[in-house]
Amino acid sequence: MKISKILSMAFAAILLVNVSCSRDEEVTQPKGAYENGIIIANEGGFSTPTASISFTKEDLSSQENNIFSANNNSAILGNVLQSIGFLGDNAYLVCNIPNKIEIVNRYSFKKVSTITAELDNPRYIAFSGNYVYVTNNNFSKIRKLNIYKNTDNSFVKSINFEKYAERIVEAGGSIFIQTDGSTYDSNWNELPTGHSISLLKSSSNNLEKTITLTDDGIIKDLISSNGFAYVLSSTATESYIYKISPEGAFTKTVLTGINGASKLRIDNNNFYFNDNKKNIYSMSISSTNIPTKPIFTTTANMYGFGVINNKIYVSNASFSQDSDVFVYNTSGTQLKTFKTGVGTNGFYKN
User: Fold this and answer.
1) Strands 270-274 and 262-267
2) Is residue 339 within 8 Å of residue 326, measured between CB atoms?
3) CB 200 within 8 A of CB 208
4) How are beta strands 239-244 and 250-255 bridged, if at all?
5) What pTM value is reported for the model?
6) 337-to-62, 63, 267, 311, 328 alpha-carbon distances in Å
7) What is the pLDDT of residues 161-194, one digit of tens each?
């Protein structure tokens, strides 16, 4: 009996160790080479197929360019990579030219599928429930929202808009679409075309209301965080941040004295944005204290701008050669610079 009990206890101990090790291996199993880093979108040239994807590890210890091509038998991504969206383990690469959305595994960057149905200059993408939402805007006659099923990427329907169909985000089960923007006069001065954000409920895929903002500036950005949509609008003298609930109610914060603000980002409950003088500002989401001076001023053209885990990424985009990316901490100290691809326009946490 004693020997039997000892053997049983020993077997149980070995089994427990094996189960524990198996669980540890499952937890630490890497998903792919591009996990825990930053995906960088390189727009490419309008008339040349030079769009590409770059990657940097989060600690900035290494970078890799052309990861879509490298992992898909040297496939060409396209001419204009407008934006990237993420759903589960997949990344959706929205290519304005040549009217396609390449779906890849976000960790290996191997191609999964392609959406082409009913696309005409696709711009931005969002997800809610069983659906994928893509804005299309050819800045002429096509201004629409396409809806697809995310199970098989089949086309569901389009919704047309009068003026714009640009940035789009999901917040609290609602889809917010930027349906106004800007145009230009004969001297290429930018002019607002109106101030509307359209709200669609993903439960019905019908438009619920049009939200009219209350300043006379130009809508510069639309993002979402923690169940709310945030809109950045600016004039030549002031800028504004709107917080919009899933039902469409909003509050407005006036960024007094900050003109031409654009590219709104949120990181660790702080807003980050820049102005037309290459100044970068920060303020708490919950604060009413408007910043009186920038964190720092960059020399880059800021075509691409991102803030991820207390690091600020800024591109000095070139459309004829590789772009330069500058990385700063949130105090404005430059941490690193490196080369990416043509027309770097976005940074995404992976």
Assistant:
1) antiparallel
2) no
3) yes
4) antiparallel
5) 0.90
6) 11, 11, 21, 12, 9
7) 998 899 999 999 999 999 998 877 788 788 788 8
DSSP letters, 69-122, are HHTTTT----SEEEEEEEETTEEEEEEEETTEEEEEETTT--EEEEE-TT-SSE
pLDDT of residue 67: 98
CA atoms within 13 A on the CB side of 346: 20
The mean pLDDT of the chain is 92
Mean pLDDT of all residues in 329-333: 96
Residue found by looking up tokens 């950045």 in the block: 232
Look at residue 23 in the predicted model and tell me its pLDDT. 56
Peptide bond into 294 cis (omega under 30): no
CB 349 within 8 A of CB 311: no
**pLDDT given for residue 26 in this prediction:** 58
Reported as type and span, the H/E element at residue 16 is helix 2-28
Q: How far apart are CA 248 and CA 11, in angstroms?
A: 61
- Residue in the block written with tokens 């885990």: 309
pLDDT score, position 262 = 93
